[in-house]
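TICKET: design request
STATUS: open
ATTACHED STRUCTURE:
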């Protein structure tokens, strides 16, 4: 007996013609940060809005017909709908920041942003945590700023897992299937009505994928889906789970993301000049860009690599080598032996691009190093992370000082509109001025926060805390009901937390280095804080541990067991299944956001930034973004930036300081009230935090920085190298080959400097260097002196480079001269170095050629 062959089709919500605009609004997730559109859908059916996880597409398909008919006759509702649609259309037509800064943008995106996950809104479960939420915020700000960018990722049938706890508090995972046809996304179709599909080559077969589009305001997000009928079952599951499966599943996903992603853009008529790799997962896109350029111009692999590298940017998020994807040679041969034939290179050639030059031939293929070697620029995601990344990867650039390792930083930011409460946004409308959200990066905008009356700001914050308490009670009751707890326990859940008590929030991925249980190291001291009759403290926890991270799961279990003690059960709660909806409620209502990672393992972190725009304060280790954001008037810092070799000593010291800050500063400041019952000092901190941090730690500033510093310079260089059949790319490659061949003959023969005499602060030291160029021209190199103060190990600290100018030749040597100023007293030193130089070379260290003396 044969099984039936089903004919598939999609059914869309049918609405009265007067309400058709609702479908248009639903399929553009700009509603995720547009308060007016959210209010519109909530007004239709609040219970259904919540039941569908804020999914307007599913909501329109489920709402009762009589309610639809009533809305079609409701003049007030229709007026609000028309206004929301008109406002969105006006924003679409308006000239945005990008066009004002760089001229009118084209019709198709010239920048592609690749990420393994995107957290755009809670009803699209295509994210696991911070990386995905950052990716979503990046797209939203690109829409707000009119940046011509498209997102590229994978669409997961089960997404990341849903979390629930068993009776013992141990994390369990479920993997429900996503119903893409009832989500705010649409398949891309060809003119003949068939879905647009691409194919990638895997061992002995081709794997197809269809393309879904999520419209994020004015920014398209394209997601590849391998669950199509022409693929066998083992290949359909390539896009089943985010971060699921073994190392072989990971390489298949990353081939689909990188190589398949470039092919998907091409199938849609998009040929980006710049590709932004958000982490190394998508790095294989570099190979596909090389292959395409080779086919189009008949250039060599080396010429295509040199040319396409100019249009790639790599952002690293990990501060530890353990966070990098590594593939052994056997796995690489299985998946790329056939592919590299089209590139004209050997497996040894490919493996070398994924290793440091001084690594063994047996070293695995490192996706981060591959991304570094195929990109013109690399950056970390905070100032501290940039320093950590330079130290971690400096072995890849022998001879380059740690400070000059070519890894910069762009500190992350958050999309303000996605996390601010409606009540706080209304305050900003009144006192910061209408249109404040289009001037988020302007410090003058936020200076007006001082005009907000203390009482109005505090009452608004108190209302948000009350709503948070209500939300937690409701969620906790549902959790207890799912666990099968008796009705008495469920009723108790409706009494947890005090609406007026000092409320701390701790919500993030439950990795052990984030130390969620740091406060539990001294339970007696914590109990006193929690059970105080006059100054009570309460804590809300949320977060998921990776399914294979038993250490993280144990932290959750420890918190749950502590929270079950009779004396604190109403003061400590753990919210299951942390997602964007839970996060939004927390950041809008807590008084203090707590973050306790082991410095320097938090690359950036963004959750604390979301608290700031809602008037919350931060209490954190000086790590990630807080290391550059903290001052005494905007919050509290645990420690002074110390780093420890003994984790146990670190935990003891920092938990002690954590308690000291809570007991001596946070609690007294919160509960100390003036005659009008306002915590004036606390409110002053709220205002200082918003005034100082909001204009900096937002994703508009972040995207503008990427556009100015990376996207536009990369696009300019890429276009220059690819014009005239990649002629300049070929010339640059030939120049690089010449420099590499002649570099062994480059030597600094002699240095002359008057350093034996007594020197004083402010005095200039003249330096002359005679250099043998080994057949290179003077214009092929830069000669610099590198000077600075020296430490006890005779190493230059915080050195700076000073270029020397060619002044002629002597005895067959090129003479370079210059000077530097003695800025401070003490022991100083300098050295002279030679680096390659070319106007099309984005980074002189990319050739890894340097000569010192």
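STATUS: resolved
RESOLUTION: sequence designed for all positions
ATTACHED SEQUENCE:
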């Amino acid at each position: 007996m044969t099984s039936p062959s089903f004919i598939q089709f999609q059914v869309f919500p049918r609405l009265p013609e007067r309400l058709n605009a609702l479908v248009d609004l639903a399929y553009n997730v700009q509603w995720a940060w547009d308060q007016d559109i959210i209010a519109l859908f909530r007004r239709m059916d609040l219970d259904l809005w919540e039941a569908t996880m804020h999914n307007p597409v599913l909501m329109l398909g489920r709402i009762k017909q009589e309610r639809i008919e009533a809305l079609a006759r409701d003049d007030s509702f229709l007026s609000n709908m028309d206004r929301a649609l008109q406002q969105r259309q006006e924003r679409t037509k308006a000239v945005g920041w990008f066009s004002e800064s760089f001229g009118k943008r084209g019709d198709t995106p010239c920048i592609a942003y690749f990420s393994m996950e995107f957290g755009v809104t809670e009803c699209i479960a295509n994210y696991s945590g911070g990386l995905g939420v950052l990716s979503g915020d990046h797209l939203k700000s690109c829409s707000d700023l009119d940046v011509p960018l498209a997102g590229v990722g994978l669409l997961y049938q089960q997404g990341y897992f849903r979390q629930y706890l068993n009776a013992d508090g141990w994390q369990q995972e479920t993997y429900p299937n996503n119903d893409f046809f009832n989500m705010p996304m649409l398949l891309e179709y060809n003119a003949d009505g068939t879905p647009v599909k691409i194919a990638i080559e895997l061992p002995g077969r081709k794997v197809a994928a269809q393309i879904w589009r999520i419209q994020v305001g004015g920014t398209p997000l394209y997601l590849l889906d391998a669950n199509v009928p022409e693929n066998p079952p083992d290949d359909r599951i390539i896009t089943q789970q985010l971060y699921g499966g073994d190392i072989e599943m990971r390489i298949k996903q990353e081939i689909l993301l990188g190589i398949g992603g470039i092919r998907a853009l091409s199938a849609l008529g998009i040929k980006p000049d710049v590709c932004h790799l958000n982490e190394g997962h998508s790095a294989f896109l570099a190979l596909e860009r090389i292959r395409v350029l080779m086919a189009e111009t008949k250039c060599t692999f080396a010429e295509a690599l040199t040319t396409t590298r100019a249009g790639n940017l790599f952002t690293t998020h990990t501060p530890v080598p353990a966070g990098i994807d590594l593939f052994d040679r056997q796995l690489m041969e299985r998946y790329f032996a056939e592919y590299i034939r089209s590139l004209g290179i050997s497996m040894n050639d490919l493996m070398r691009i994924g290793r440091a030059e001084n690594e063994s031939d047996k070293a695995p293929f490192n996706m981060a190093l591959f991304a570094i070697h195929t990109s013109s620029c690399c950056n970390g995601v905070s100032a501290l992370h940039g320093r950590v990344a330079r130290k971690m990867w400096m072995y890849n650039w022998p001879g380059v000082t740690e400070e000059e390792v070519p890894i910069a930083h762009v500190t992350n930011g958050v999309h303000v509109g996605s996390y601010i409460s409606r009540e706080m946004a209304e305050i900003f409308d009144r006192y910061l001025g209408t249109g404040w959200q289009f001037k988020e990066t302007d410090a003058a905008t936020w200076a007006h926060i001082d005009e907000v009356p203390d009482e109005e700001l505090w009452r608004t914050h108190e209302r948000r805390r009350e709503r948070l308490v209500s939300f937690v009670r409701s969620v906790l009751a549902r959790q207890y009901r799912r666990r099968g707890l008796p009705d008495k326990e469920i009723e108790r859940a409706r009494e947890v937390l005090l609406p007026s008590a000092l409320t701390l929030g701790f919500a993030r991925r439950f990795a052990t280095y984030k130390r969620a249980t740091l406060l539990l190291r001294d339970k007696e001291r914590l109990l006193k804080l929690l059970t105080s009759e006059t100054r009570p403290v309460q804590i809300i926890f949320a977060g998921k541990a990776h399914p294979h991270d038993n250490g993280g799961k144990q932290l959750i279990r420890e918190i749950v067991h502590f929270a079950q003690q009779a004396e604190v059960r109403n003061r400590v709660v753990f919210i299951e299944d942390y997602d964007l909806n839970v996060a939004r409620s927390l950041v809008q209502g807590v008084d203090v956001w707590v973050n306790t990672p082991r410095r320097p393992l938090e690359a950036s972190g963004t959750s604390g930034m979301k608290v700031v725009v809602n008037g919350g304060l931060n209490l954190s280790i000086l790590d990630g973004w807080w290391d550059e954001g903290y001052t005494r008037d905007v919050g509290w810092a645990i420690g002074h930036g110390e780093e420890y070799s003994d984790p146990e000593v670190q935990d003891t010291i920092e938990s002690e300081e954590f308690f000291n800050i809570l007991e001596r500063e946070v609690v007294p400041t919160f509960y100390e009230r003036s005659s009008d019952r306002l915590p004036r000092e606390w409110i002053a901190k709220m205002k200082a935090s918003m005034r100082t941090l909001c204009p900096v730690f937002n994703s508009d500033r972040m995207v503008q920085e990427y556009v100015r510093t990376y996207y536009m310079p990369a696009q300019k260089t890429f276009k220059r190298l690819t014009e005239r059949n990649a002629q300049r790319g070929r010339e640059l490659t030939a120049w690089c080959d010449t420099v590499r061949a002649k570099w062994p003959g480059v030597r600094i023969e002699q240095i002359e400097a008057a350093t034996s005499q007594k020197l004083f602060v402010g005095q200039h030291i003249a330096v002359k260097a005679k250099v043998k160029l080994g057949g290179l021209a003077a214009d092929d190199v830069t000669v610099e002196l590198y000077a600075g103060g020296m430490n006890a190990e005779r190493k230059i600290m915080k050195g700076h480079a000073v270029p020397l100018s060619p002044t002629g030749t002597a005895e067959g040597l090129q003479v370079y001269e210059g000077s530097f100023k003695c800025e401070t007293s003490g022991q100083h030193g300098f050295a002279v170095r030679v680096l390659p130089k070319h106007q099309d070379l984005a980074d002189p260290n990319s050739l890894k050629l340097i000569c010192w003396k």
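CLOSING REMARK: The mean pLDDT is 94. The domain at 746-852 is CATH 2.60.40 (Immunoglobulin-like).
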